[in-house]
Amino acid sequence: MWVQLRCGLEPRALAALAVVLVAAAVFAAMHFWSARPEGVRAPDPLSAAGHAPVPRAAADPVADGSGAPEPSPGPPPAAGGTGGRIVVDVSGKVRRPGIHRLPSGARVADALRAAGGVRPGVDLDGLNRARVLVDGEQILVGVPPGTAAAGGTEGGGAGPTATGGTATGPVSLNSATAEQLEALPGVGPVLAQHIVDYRAQHGGFQSVGELREVTGIGDRRFADLQSLVRP
User: Fold this and answer.
1) How many CB atoms neighbour CB 199 within 10 A?
2) Residue by residue, what is the 3-state secondary structure of the chain?
3) Rounded-to-integer distance, Cα 8 and Cα 4, Å
4) Closest C-alpha to 96, from 114, 78, 108
């Protein structure tokens, strides 16, 4: 009545205004109720094996006071080092001398076992059987220094001997490693690799004269190396 008298509204207009105000109030209340924040429950974690729900205390170590989870151990290291292969030449007084393929990271003792073991009576006091082998290495067992590299049935070329020294004499072009070839006068890492590549491409050296065909070896360098190498 006060609004009607104050504003001079007709009863019908006043009723329409009241309906609008009530509708607006209801709409505002519904909007406020729908926009209120609601809590969302996290899903239960699943186990990796059976995909079954795992209790939350077991899935969350922080929740049960046990602290941060410890990292799971990785797979055990594979035997045989990195899993690669190396090729070594075992010569001298062993039961099966020759080329043997061993796992990367193998030691001198492994090479001796692959060669069938040493012959009876061979002195191994000077041989470091715990040394790690490298690819292309030659192992001379029971051969006195200075005689093994001269050429014979018991292996040649520069390489470790049973006394732990390095054999003297001509270097074998067919069995020497790149590091052993670098010890020759005038031969650096690049030229030594050229010699190794030529040996691999042509199946080895048949004579010292083939050294002329290696890239980087001229007449003067060949003259310096001719007496220091052998096939």
Assistant:
1) 18
2) CHHHHHHCCCHHHHHHHHHHHHHHHHHHHHHHHHCCCCCCCCCCCECCCCCCECCHHHHCCCCCCCCCCCCCCCCCCCCCCCCCEEEEEEEECECCCEEEEEECCCEHHHHHHHCCCECCCCCCCCCCCCCECCCCCEEEECCCCCCHHHCCCCCCCCCECCCCCECCCCEECCCCCHHHHHCCCCCCHHHHHHHHHHHHHHCCCCCHHHHHHCCCCCHHHHHHHCCCEEC
3) 5
4) 114
- Name, in order, each residue with C-beta under 8 angstroms of 83's C-beta and a sequence gap of 6 or more: 103, 104
Task: State the Cα–Cα distance between residues 61 and 77, nearest whole angstrom.
Answer: 29
For 56, phi then psi, to 5°, come to -65, -35
- What are the residues whose beta carbons fall under 8 Å from the beta carbon of 163, sequence distance 6 or more? 126, 127, 144, 145
Contact 167, 161 (CB under 8 A): yes
pTM summary value: 0.33
- 97, 175 contact by CB (below 8 A): no
User: Could you list the pLDDT tens digit for every one of the 231 residues in the chain?
Assistant: 666 566 666 777 778 878 888 888 888 888 777 776 766 676 666 554 445 555 554 445 444 555 545 544 444 444 444 458 999 999 888 888 889 999 999 999 999 999 999 888 888 877 888 999 999 888 888 765 544 444 433 333 344 443 344 445 688 898 888 888 888 888 888 899 999 999 989 888 888 889 889 998 988 888 888 888 888
CA distance 139 to 161: 6
Q: What is the identity of the amino acid at 200?
A: A
